[in-house]
Amino acid sequence: MVQKTFVLDTNVLLHDPDSLFVFADNKVVIPMTVIEELDMMKRRNDELGRNSRLVSRKLDMLRKRGSLIEGVKLDNGGIIKIELDWDKELPKEFIEDKADHRILSVALKLKKEGEKVIFITKDINLRIKAEALGLVTQDYERAKVSIETIYSGFREFEVSKEVVDKIFTSGKILVEELAKEINIKEEEIYYNEFLILKFNKSHSALCRIKKGDFNKKEAVRVPSQEISVFNIKPLNVQQRFAMELLLDDKLSLVTLLGVAGAGKTLLALACGLHKVIEEKVYRRLLISRPVVPMGRDIGYLPGTKEEKLSSWMGAIYDNLDFLIGKMYKYDTEKLQSTLEYYFESGLIEVEALTYLRGRSLPNQFFIIDDAQNLTPHEIKTIVSRAGEGSKIVLTGDPHQIDSPYMDDSSNGLVYLIDRFKGQEIYGHITFTKTERSQLAALAAELL
């Protein structure tokens, strides 16, 4: 088999520092310009800065095993090499002193030398330029998940009348029995997945998959009584499923994915307030979201940290006003004093993700809004912050991504959903219907 040469762009290493080691049995080339760009990023206090430092440390460890200029052999059979030289004969349209073009010229030089070069970058425009130069180029797809086939958390099946009657009579049915009825494998039905079982479109049962006696999976009927938390009731079956997951203390991780206006953030906040303030299961409701549009840094806004955060957390505060305002029929004075009490007493805390690194978060109901703007590495860092007795809820819409180097298939939220499906402590629902307003529903559908 002919060894391939993968030339990595800076954004690939910043996206996934472990990308150095995923091209087994092949050669990985890091242009010196990439090292220079990593060096410029190292002083940043965000995830990009941390990843640049992590890549530098990994390369330094490899340097101890041999010369990176000549190439260091890896345990996976590959080679990592830093390339100093580049092709000096780029077309006149390519400005030579531009970093992206110098990186491209390294790949071009190696191709002219007879190597089977593949240029890897997450920059779409750079892939276009690479193709214009005759280079084979690809996106970095290690953490990509097809959004069309992403786990939705619920499915609908046609079943016999006997199955529906049995669920209503006994409240459950063994999954091995149900799997035969709907003709799929038992292992393809996941823990905490919801099933809508219908007979003749007029007779149906809602079930959730749980572990039953003798560790056997069971489809357990979802109670039919109406749920209401902080005066919020589910408006559709997807919201009902989401509330079941959010209110289940046995689940440590819940993800809510879907269109704008589906109620993801509102439901998460309502259930979090209920668990913290009314049931006192958790000692604090901690709310955060990634700060993406200004380089993931809140330092550009004037004022204290709290004043800066109020600008970024507008959607959160709007939902809190709505939820708590309903309690007092929107009496402004009572609403304001109650909110102040919740924040001053520490029952509710709003924090930037930047300041969560290094913290341990025990016994907290932790909501991360707009999680589609996080990379897989950032998601791992955040979820690993969870302490004993905590619950993490991530909400997001994969079609509203602000990062230039991620899309609906490569963001950390869909990656997490794909990797965690089927775990007993995890639940997920994908929303397909907006409940915000008729205008919001049309915008989600038409725009």
Describe how the helices and strands are arranged.
Layout: E1 4-8, H1 10-15, E2 27-31, H2 32-41, H3 47-63, E3 72-73, E4 79-83, H4 99-112, E5 116-120, H5 124-132, E6 136-138, E7 154-158, H6 161-170, E8 172-174, H7 175-182, E9 194-199, E10 203-211, E11 217-221, H8 237-246, E12 253-258, H9 264-278, E13 284-288, H10 305-312, H11 314-327, H12 332-344, E14 348-350, E15 364-368, H13 376-383, E16 391-396, H14 412-420, E17 426-431, H15 438-446
Parallel strand pairs: 1-2, 1-5, 2-4, 5-6, 7-9, 12-16, 12-17, 13-14, 13-15, 15-16
Antiparallel strand pairs: 3-4, 8-11, 9-10, 10-11
Helix pairs in contact: 2-3, 2-4, 8-9, 9-11, 11-12, 13-14
Model description:
There is one protein chain. The chain is α/β, with parallel strands linked by helices and 447 residues long. The chain has three domains: 4-138, 5'-nuclease (Rossmann fold), CATH 3.40.50.1010; 145-225, Archaeosine Trna-guanine Transglycosylase, Chain: A, domain 4 (Roll); 227-446, P-loop containing nucleotide triphosphate hydrolases (Rossmann fold), CATH 3.40.50.300. It is 36% helix and 19% strand. It is built from 15 helices and 17 strands. A six-stranded mixed β-sheet has the order 3-4-2-1-5-6. Strands 14-13-15-16-12-17 form a six-stranded parallel β-sheet, with helices on both faces. α2 (32-41) packs across α3 (47-63) and α9 (264-278) packs across α11 (314-327). The longest helix is centred in the first third of the chain and has 17 residues, at 47-63. It is globular. It starts with a strand and ends with a helix. Mean pLDDT is 87; it is low at 293-298.
